[in-house]
Amino acid sequence: MVKVGIVGGTGYTGVELLRLLAQHEDSEVVAITSRAEAGRRLDELFPNLRGYYDLAFSEPDVDLLASCDVVFFATPHNVAMHLVPELLAAGTRVIDLSADYRIRDAELWSQWYGEPHASPELLADAVYGLPEINREQIAKAQLVACPGCYPTAIELGLIPLLESGLVEPSNIIASAASGTSGAGRQAKIDNLASEVSGSFKAYGVGGHRHLPEIEQCLSLLSGSDVSLTFVPHLLPMVRGIHATLFARLNKPGEQSIEDLQRLFENRYRDEPFVDVLPNGTFPQTRAVKGANHCQLSLMIPQQRDTVVVMSTIDNLVKGASGQAVQNMNIMLGLPEDRGLRQVGLLP
């Protein structure tokens, strides 16, 4: 049985980890930390977990966490980078759901997060936890940086096009919209139901922290610098991301939509959590709600020079905690879908 620790268990990604791991036959959560809730029973804060766990939140204790086989960090940025070095030294495997180890360049990380990185020596060793491109590296990793939610939806939608060199990498556009849970569980006026209900707005237009992560991943895939215009939006719903991606074909007219459909189907044929929909069918966020799936579809509108890819995920599952469990399974040699067989919730 895999012993699991979770640092930062009171947020949405923390409770989503607990929900998924409660159905994981090969794991046992033995420690969950929260300074603010230390001593409080888990099921008092999260009544949906009643009967699944007999645990209370505790103060972060490095010795206790180091006794675990795997530790998840479901924390804001600036937490994991202070504790991870000690856990790695103790031989514990770490999966970080925050942004602390996603960007390889420490100076670039500091530019976007406004402070020096506390353990920059580990950035080169952290494996970017997108299984669809790094499965072999994840299997050998001690430290995995779980991708962000927007990056997951956008990267999965663009990987086949950039790997094959079919699109111009210097002018890609991503217009993506997320439910309110993407902003976390802390109280914010902008996320109140009365503020978001019946409304739709853009934010972070001048620069979003996920941008350098996305450009880094896609540039490595394409072999040249990728320049992305990324505009996120806030949807008046709790879960889900819908990303609409626009890329200019290098040789318009040479590839039909049928050609690109085959490209995507062949690229993801053996991927358990990526579903390329039939041509002419468009993904919906509700179809992936609660599931560790990404659904994709694509079109070449009016047969011109731009391919449009649509990508949907649940931001808390494939965009965070589900992908983290998927990474754990790969790291430990378990079936990749262990604990992740949930079907999307309808309605």
From TrEMBL:
Its main location: cytoplasm. SUPFAM superfamilies: Glyceraldehyde-3-phosphate dehydrogenase-like, C-terminal domain, NAD(P)-binding Rossmann-fold domains. The keyword Oxidoreductase applies. GO terms for molecular function: N-acetyl-gamma-glutamyl-phosphate reductase activity; NAD binding; NADP+ binding. It comes from the Bacteria. It catalyses: N-acetyl-L-glutamate 5-semialdehyde + phosphate + NADP(+) = N-acetyl-L-glutamyl 5-phosphate + NADPH + H(+). It is found in: Cytoplasm. Keywords: Amino-acid biosynthesis, Arginine biosynthesis, Cytoplasm, NADP, Oxidoreductase. HAMAP family: ArgC_type1 (MF_00150). Belongs to the NAGSA dehydrogenase family. Type 1 subfamily. This is N-acetyl-gamma-glutamyl-phosphate reductase. It comes from Sediminihaliea albiluteola.
